[in-house]
Amino acid sequence: MNTNTGVAAWITRPMLITFALLVSLPLWIESVGLYQYLGVEIVIWMVFALGFNLLLGYTGLPAFGHGAYFGIGAYAFGLSQLHLAESLWLGIFCAMFFAALGGAMVATFLSHRRGIYYALLTIAFGQVFWFLSIKWHRLTGGEDGLLNIPRPDLDLGFVSISLASNQALFYFVLLLFVLVVIGLWRLIHSPFGTVIKAIKQNEMRTAFIGYNVWLYKWLVFTLSASIAGLAGGMFAMAQESAYPDVMSLHASGFVVMMVLIGGGMVSFWGPVIGAAVYFLARDLLGAATETWLLWYGLMFMAVIMFKPEGIAGAWQGLVKRRKESARVEKKPFTG
Amino acid sequence: MDFLANLAPHLVNGITLGLLFALIALGFMLIVGVMEVINLAHGSLFALGAYVAMTIIGIEPQWFGPLGEWYAALPAGLRYSFALVLAPILVGLVGMLLEFCLRGTYGKDPLFGLLLTFGAAMVIEELIRIIWGSGEQVLQTPPAISGAFIWNGLIWSSYRFFAAGFSVLAIVMVWLFLERTPYGAIIKAGAHDSEMVRALGINLSRLRLYVFGFGVALAALAGIIMAPIWGLRPHVGVDAVIPAFLIIALGGVGSFGGAVVAGVLVGLTVGITGAYASEWSLMSMYILLIAVISFRARGLFGKKSVLEN
């Protein structure tokens, strides 16, 4: 969160490194013993975590039921493909629109709350959506969810590309990821971003300066929900199904964990790192032991106890210390 | 009259459920009050209490030699009562361990405490899976309180009445402890302004340790009572902790009476909707919360809390 650079660049070096790493991912992921589909999953959750961090890391709002909007996106994508028309753009639009709609509704109740009530209410609303997804059989298919959601072709007007292979899907998902990253980066470094960061620091003072805090909180929540919906829609496409599990309290907790472990509180890239760490931990620990959640949970507790700024925070600390020690060495010896 | 007679069993079930929810919520609220931590592990510790009690009741005679044989020969009621005392104490100790881990988060963003306990909840749930397996288990109740009886032409489960009575007893005891003893006064003062309590020369870290242990022990106690009604699965805690959140938000953070009233209200709502649309019975409490919160921002009896800043 480097705020003192004046006008931020459209593209930055970390961005290029991340994109390059991800673009080349399908080339080397199999040679390190992983599989193509994992890349799709990681990038989808990166999008989800980035959108969520707008709320948690930048506005400082402790939302704890965000899986709901991811789930709404997944269901909206599935339902639009199954009942309306098999079209990629329609599906993505529905996923974002309905998640934003749900988010906007909830945000209307939430936005004049702070702290513990905010956390409690986001949990309560998250559970309402989770419950609906299980009980509204006719629409959602109950606990089994929606099955056999098609993966529509990417139709660009002049050419149509099939996304049936995981590699093709990966590049499509990556394209959306790039758009989200650049969009969020611009947003955070815009006047809007400055106001939400001010809300994080002191909501009351921000209101006294004359900003409509309620509206900003409402907008951030709605926007964050729509990005969650986008991620959910991609997830439904990747899984070719949508089910209530992604809306549960656990899924909502996982995204918070990703943001925290990665260091979303201090860095734009925290959620991206966190999502990658989560999936790598799941696959590597999961291969070694059946009770990987135990070890992941312990690791998470250790991060909160000893390094609450997460991986990105630890990295920033390291860089700072190295710079300082370099400066000390360069100083002429006066003794 | 016919209408009331049909509804009566649902009302009894609802009140029983509500009282147990209130018991969970009380422990949860003590922790929120004194530590300013939303304890997401509360539900897992609730489940842990029930599992530990199940093991204590069912100790095999060969485990501890002659002592084990003597123990296994005791009447079921005695073993059950023993578990009812010992299991909350053991889980309370686990809670104290968790509080020890939490110490680094005091004074920071309340989110860190919440997340640490979320991690702890995952760990405890996995531990339950490792020790007791993922399948559904049964907590044996002694014959004196199980079974059913017929009254006014309706069948009533004895256990529900035991559970309701026991919860009332526990809630009254907690209330007496908080209102009528010097320790209770310290805890209440700590919930109001912990810095001031420290300034008065009271060992705040020890107070926090004990309050956390106590709050968690209440969750474990509720877990033991609830287990025969809900069944025992590793993730049963989520079903318990969510209503506890709702009750706190509904009754108002920091209000003891509010938690009890809200607990019974939630229980009744769930019970009555259960009578007419059982599918939606758990949903109704969320609707209740949203309805109340829309009109009364801090719940029914809530006052302004430091946690809102």
Short synopsis of the structure:
Chain A contains 15 helices and two strands. With 335 residues, chain A is mainly α.
Describe this structure in words.
- The complex is a heterodimer of chains A (335) and B (309).
- Chain A has 335 residues and is mainly alpha-helical.
- Chain A has a domain at 25-248.
- Helices cover 72% and strands 1% of the residues of chain A.
- Chain A contains 15 helices and two strands.
- In chain A, helix 3 packs parallel to helix 8.
- The longest helix of chain A has 27 residues, at 213-239.
- The radius of gyration of chain A is 21 Å and the shape is globular.
- In chain A, 52% of the residues are buried.
- With 309 residues, chain B is mostly helical.
- Chain B has a single domain, classed as Orthogonal Bundle (ABC transporter involved in vitamin B12 uptake, BtuC).
- Chain B has helices at 2-35, 42-57, 66-72, 76-102, 110-132, 158-180, 182-192, 194-199, 204-230, 236-251, 256-276, 283-295, and strands at 148-151, 154-157.
- A two-stranded antiparallel sheet of chain B has the order 1-2.
- In chain B, a hairpin with a 2-residue loop joins strand 1 (148-151) and strand 2 (154-157).
- In chain B, helix 1 (2-35) packs parallel to helix 6 and helix 2 packs across helix 10 (236-251).
- The radius of gyration of chain B is 20 Å and the shape is globular.
- The interface between A and B is large, with 40 and 48 residues.
In terms of quaternary structure, what is this? heterodimer
Structural class of chain B: mainly alpha
Shape of chain A: globular
Q: What is the beta-strand fraction of chain A?
A: under 5%
Strand content of chain B: under 5%
Low-confidence stretches of chain B: none
Report low-confidence residues of chain A grouped into runs of 5 or more: 1-6
Tell me the radius of gyration of chain A.
21 Å
Mean pLDDT of chain A, rounded to whole units? 84
CATH topology of chain B: ABC transporter involved in vitamin B12 uptake, BtuC
SSE string of chain B, helices as H and strands as E: HHHHHEEHHHHHHH
Specify Rg of chain B, calculated over alpha carbons: 20 Å
Strand order in space, largest sheet of chain B: 1-2
* Major sheet description of chain B: 2 strands, antiparallel
Number of strands of chain B: 2
Q: Most extensive interface: pair and counts?
A: A-B, 40 and 48 residues
Count of distinct strands of chain A = 2
Spatial shape of chain B: globular
List the strand order in the largest sheet of chain A. Answer: 1-2
